[in-house]
Amino acid sequence: MAPVSAHPFLFFLVGALATAQTGLTAYQIYQANHGGQEFPSEEWKNREIFMLFTAAWTLLFALLHYVINLYIGAFWSLITLIFWVIATVLWARVEDFHPSDCSGTSFGSFCRQVVAIEAIGWTEVALTALLFFATLFACHQHRRNSTYRDAGYRGYYV
Questions:
Q1: What are the boundaries of each domain within the chain?
Q2: Residue pair 10/80 in contact by the 8 Å Cβ criterion
Q3: Exposure winner among 4, 87, 123, 127, fewest CB in 10 A?
Q4: pLDDT, tens digit (0-9, with 9 covering 90-100), for 106-144
């Protein structure tokens, strides 16, 4: 019986969360630019745009993971992990906002959206770290099991 790879499931989870994050941050940026809601500061705007970039980058990575080489995928997942750590830590350090201020606000309020963006960011950090280490393990297993005449370093996820 062949072992079941966790890569497709992990990539699906990472891609689904990146889709949610892309939609939520894009909606907030749209509201700030066209909906009459203003960014609290220029720093806030820059962090939100970087969070949107990171989510879009991750979505692209999740969609293209079947066509990239296993070893390039490990490098790409490391870059994605670094992006998520930076974006989420910067987002968590936003001034003039405390999650405890959200009590009593409606479900779709700006305050709760900010909390959701941070929560999705930390979840992406954890999943991307898990994905990176799973990819490293797959690279190690592939290298250990390959011979000179095998695919060698050209192994794929699937």
A1: 7-154
A2: no
A3: 4
A4: 766 777 888 889 999 999 999 999 988 888 887 777 665
